[in-house]
Amino acid sequence: MRQRRTIAITDPDERRRGSIVSPASDAGAGASRPPEADPEIPAPGIACLHFEPPDDPGARGRAWREHLAPVFAVSFGPESDLGVPIAMRSYHLGELLVGDVIAPAHILERSPEMIRQQGLDHILLQFYRRGRSLVETDHAAEPVTEVQCIVFDLAQPVRIVADAVDATNVLIPRALLEKQGCRPDALHGRPLDHDGDPFGRLVHGFVANVVACGDRLDRREALAAASAITQLCATWLRGREAGSPAQHQDVRIRVRRFIETELGNPKLSPALIAARLGLSRSSLYRAFVPNGIVSYIRDRRLMHAMRMLMRDDVQPARVSRIAYAVGFSDERTFRRAFKRRFGFVPSDAAQCLGPRRGPEPLSILQNWIESL
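User: That's the sequence. What structure does it adopt?
Assistant: Structure tokens below.
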């Protein structure tokens, strides 16, 4: 029997008429991951990613796990009721993602291994409208209640035991907040009152309104909204920082920023980083345990190459230029490292990430996050 799609990208005009963009292909219908629609939509609207739960209750948990896999590993407890409504929509505003979610009780986790494999450097803000959870980090366990916002640094481990929730989400690259003078890693796992605090109420209200009118935004308006959200969130979070980040976290921020500016330098190495930033080799290596600074540099180079490949029509000669642009000394080494990281060679990126991709593609949500 034909498998129903669980995720759809919708066109704003079609959605107002109550219809969904038709599937581009049935490729991969027999695979474990539900097939997805093409994320491209006609101008002037912006792309919206909808999670649509399958009719079969037995398939809902699996579909929900797969949808959230780019950010969290999902599991369910005995109290989880997968018969209740599950919904999530995400809008790509060009520089960040916004959206909302209604979900049953579940457990979310980002383990050190997951962090290493994904290499995400983003901050997730989740504004609760309904529901409660317990957020466990390496430093504390914090209860989160209605009208609170929880800050997640996706480069740090976390475990969330959540009741059924209704929330607004903002996913922002760390670099955008740092440009506004905000160091959000110190707030990882902390609940902030977004209702009792006037400015917090303003921030949440603005983001919620952007989500509510997302179907009617064009790309120019979306970029303006993204810039405003970044400035509002950075200002609010700066006012909530309690003390300075732990020393190793501060070192990681400085090193990450330096690495991003030097990715095209083939001589980028731990020795160069330590010398340029005035760090000892031991403190540098401690900041990137357990997988190491060399592994982190390579992963950031490959992630940057993936973003370049996603944005361009790649010809064979283009692959070579991308390899050198991200600091690899030769194309062969780049191709080998890229295939080991993503499962396909760079020249196949367009086919593997397009609408007729194979049985184990990157999800649309993962593509969006890595393109920021």
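The two ends are 37 Å apart (CA to CA).
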